[in-house]
Write a structure and sequence with these properties.
Length: about 375
């Protein structure tokens, strides 16, 4: 691999300098790792896992017989070799990588040299959530589950696809089955702006159900359909919009507030103060997808500022590395982040720039006070 270095050279006796370009190369290293079992799992669908390893560590690989040959710079080859050795150890110990699991783990270990594949998988031990066995697929997912176990109020903040809602429902189901709580309360802002449910036909439950479908989907994955229906009928699992939480005290409950970025500051305060004895509450949201009307402050952002440092409350922040959906979702999230940063910087420069001295506005009358306030 060629590198370029600019160095000063002497051209004339009077020490006049000019720049010359020297080309020097870093020797590439090769290594070979035996893959005795689990080759299909290692490569993944359309070789997506091995391509992620190559792009993340800037190495080239080739499968020769049962050996995976790695070529690249020494440090990168050494890291790839260690990851593959960890993979071999885990497979030999009987660990099964389900669809997408290894891809999620590789995204973490290729970005963070301090994290090993073996330590990441083992620290994210599998847990039983009803009929599902799940393991956290990133460091932040593991922190999220541990925070829910340790604290009575946890905020999960981050982009779509990071498992915030799914894992919260899983922890709620686990607590219910273990009889740590007697019911699960699922709530969220039912519509984008306000709580105007009247235009939908049916009962209150039928009006709210379409907006709470992600919570239902997670429930049906954790428990048999018949059992979910019975628990809903008996109000052991209760689904309600934020507007109908006022005045209640929720004892012995596992409460999940989803899509919290679309709650107002008043709604957030009201929901947080519903928590009773022997209860846990998980508040989830994505502050990049706020649907509140202009001028309304998000309750999630407000709570993050107000409750920072309060004992017994934990904040877990996710980023694009924690996205566990299709790999394209991770790239979409990153692209929108870059776009938002660019737009924010552009707006800031417009706001701070001074009007031209000869703009000709100095003789124009000031707008009425009401118009100025409205624009502000």
């Amino acid at each position: 691999m060629a590198h370029f270095r600019i160095s000063p050279r002497l051209k004339t006796p009077d020490c006049a300098k000019f720049l010359s370009l020297e080309v020097f190369s870093t020797p590439l290293t090769k290594a070979s790792v035996l893959i005795s079992r689990g080759v299909e799992s290692l490569f993944g669908t359309r070789d997506e896992n091995i391509r992620l390893l190559e792009s993340g560590l800037n190495v080239h690989t080739q499968l020769v017989d049962n050996h995976l040959e790695i070529e690249g710079e020494p440090d990168n080859v050494s890291r790839a070799e260690k990851i593959l050795e960890d993979y071999n150890t885990l497979v030999s110990e009987g660990h099964i990588f389900n669809n997408g699991d290894l891809n999620s783990y590789l995204r973490v270990v290729t970005l963070d040299p301090e994290v090993s594949l073996r330590a990441l998988v083992r620290s994210g031990r599998q847990r039983s959530f009803g009929k599902k066995l799940l393991a956290p697929k990133s460091v932040n997912q593991r922190r999220y589950l541990e925070a829910i176990e340790r604290n009575d109020l946890v905020f999960g903040i981050g982009p779509a696809g990071t498992g915030k809602t799914y894992l919260a429902v899983a922890m709620g189901v686990s607590a219910l089955l273990a009889k740590q709580v007697s019911r699960i309360i699922l709530t969220r802002p039912a519509v984008e702006a306000g709580e105007k449910l009247g235009f939908l036909p049916g009962t209150l439950q039928e009006k709210v159900d379409p907006f709470l479908r992600p919570l239902y989907d997670a429930l049906y994955e954790m428990l048999d359909t018949d059992r979910v229906e019975k628990l809903l009928e008996r109000n052991v699992i209760e689904v309600a919009p934020i507007a109908f939480m006022r005045g209640r005290t929720l004892n012995d409950s596992f409460i999940i507030l989803d899509e919290a970025q679309n709650s107002t500051a008043e709604q957030m305060k009201m929901v947080l103060t519903r928590q009773g004895f022997n209860s846990k509450m998980v508040v989830n949201g994505d502050i990049t997808q706020i649907d509140l009307p202009a001028g309304r402050r998000s309750g999630l952002i407000d709570a993050t500022d107000v409750l920072k440092g309060v004992e017994g409350i934990s904040f877990v922040h996710f980023d694009e590395r924690d996205v566990v959906r299709h790999p394209l979702v991770q790239r979409i999230v990153k692209a929108y982040e870059r776009s938002g940063e660019s737009a924010g910087g552009w707006q800031l420069s417009l706001k701070l720039s001074e009007p031209p001295a000869d703009s000709g506005n100095e003789d124009k009358p000031e707008p009425p006070a009401s118009d100025t306030a409205a624009r502000a």
